[in-house]
Amino acid sequence: MTGLSTVLIVVGLFLAGGVYSFQKQQMPKSVVLLLAIGSAMCLLAGVLRIQGIWG
User: Fold this and answer.
1) What is the pTM of this model?
2) What Cα–Cα distance (Å) separates residue 17 from each residue in 5, 43, 51?
């Protein structure tokens, strides 16, 4: 199911861009941290699905 893996990676990269943007706009650290965790989880899930380790 590489389609879902691709979507997860794209969403993770989109969230990573949001982390950069929010950090640049001096948003609260808790929001930036939450977005960074979400980005890392999406990227990790996408990579693990491509590798066949998970899902």
Assistant:
1) 0.83
2) 18, 13, 24
Q: Which residue has the tokens 């982390």?
A: 19
Percentage of residues in the chain having pLDDT higher than 90: 76
Residue 33: CB atoms within 10 A of its CB come to 12
User: Residue 47 corresponds to which tokens in the numbers above?
Assistant: 């990579």
| Average pLDDT estimate for 27-42 | 94
Q: What is the C-alpha separation between 37 and 30, in angstroms, rounded?
A: 11
**How far lies 8's CA from each of 29, 42, 43, 47, in Å?**
24, 5, 6, 9
User: 54: which 2 tokens?
Assistant: 């998970």
